[in-house]
Amino acid sequence: MTPVLARLTDRLAASARATASRLSPDVDAWIAERRRRPFESALITLDELTEPDGWGFAPGTGVLGHRSGRFFTVEGMHVTTNQGPVGEWWQPVLVQRDIAILGLIAKEFDGVLHFLLQAKMEPGNVGMVQLSPTVQATPSNYTRVHGGRPSRYVEYFTDPARGRVLVDVMQSEQGAWFHLKRNRNVVVEVRDDVAAHEDFLWLTLGQIGCLLQRPNVVNMDARTVLGCLSAMADAGASGAEVFGEPLGDPPEPGAVHPMTEVMSWLVRRKCEHEMSARLVPLTALPGWRRDTDRIRPEDGAGEFSIASVRVHARTREAPRWKQPLLAPHGPTLAGLVVRSVNGVPHALVRAEALPGYRDTIELGPTVRFPMHAYDRTPPEHRPPFLDHLLTAGDGVRYDTVQSEEGGRFLHAETRYLVVEAGDDFPRRVPPDFSWISLKQLNALQRHGHYLGIEVRSLLLCLAVACPNDRPTRSR
């Protein structure tokens, strides 16, 4: 490890231990005050959504897009695959070619690294306001296509001379709901004074870790950027260990599989799993219909529908707007099984094929499953290990509901669950699964398109939100 990286590890460790700061003495009151503001996000009909200078359905294809040609579109997608219980399906999908900046400004105060987070209102957020990165904006936003105010602090991420880059990596978003979506996850450390606007707050990693133990406070974009940062430095919650294992060594020693075997397994899964995801007109989706309020599955089931909202938020760059949102029909479970093998922490991850991924497969959690579909899904079609996660009991190490991206999804909640494997858990797993050490997963997270967004959130929560309750048993 280079001296620079070692120092970053030490500084992140100190920040993770700091659960209080003079810059933010009462975080709860600060968040509560911002949530009391008169924000509005009201469901409207699809007819109300469409207007001459706003959103509309394209003639012929029915694609739902903004008249400016920017922001995002709702299109149709036809998917075929050679694996799984369903070999073909049609669905709407969000298409956003802009690469958003998810950027955090870092600065040292009183010898402790702090991060500038924003209390941001998004129309699909549970609780309306959640903590987001310093900048969470697409080019359509920060080039002011909406005609509103410029995005605050964006210059720190568009001008490389503004500070020292700690992390800068491209990562995917939800591969089931987006088509080829990716964001720039970036952390920039500054030395100069940065005045915090009233809706921004300097927080330590320790304070953020405490907030991650609460539902729907730290948003998805903040979690993915912080996950990339912690992976870059490989720092644990205590600043020294995860599961009792010292960090800072190369990722190979003690791992069940050397990294070359991990990569070979991943390549084999990509070669064996054939998947085609083709964009098609929104009007040509068997099993879907467009009615007054939504684009929805004809059978009333399905994982989601497309809704639309009217928004009023005076703290945003554009204070009023309308937009479509993808509305899940219930919460999702993202569960990760972990175990310590010969003193080295490992996670059971899945090579998950999703139609929106650029290379078909990224590493997903042990289980990702829409829980509203549990009763109507035959047991033989439920994912392996689902029932083990749901009946874990004393093995639970993290269990909190968190929101997904409120700018594109309406009240999309995921139950993030980490469970320590007991003695009865099988060591041999199906071909799509592999035990990979946490260090190896963090090494992969330093590069784009290896770890799906749910795994990135789980690794962050496991690292910084569970300081007093880590698995220690050795198998």
Automatic annotation (TrEMBL):
<protein>
    <submittedName>
        <fullName>NDP-hexose 2,3-dehydratase family protein</fullName>
    </submittedName>
</protein>
<dbReference type="InterPro" id="IPR038153">
    <property type="entry name" value="EvaA-like_sf"/>
</dbReference>
<feature type="domain" description="dTDP-4-dehydro-6-deoxy-alpha-D-glucopyranose 2,3-dehydratase">
    <location>
        <begin position="26"/>
        <end position="229"/>
    </location>
</feature>
<feature type="domain" description="dTDP-4-dehydro-6-deoxy-alpha-D-glucopyranose 2,3-dehydratase">
    <location>
        <begin position="260"/>
        <end position="462"/>
    </location>
</feature>
<dbReference type="Pfam" id="PF03559">
    <property type="entry name" value="Hexose_dehydrat"/>
</dbReference>
<dbReference type="InterPro" id="IPR005212">
    <property type="entry name" value="EvaA-like"/>
</dbReference>
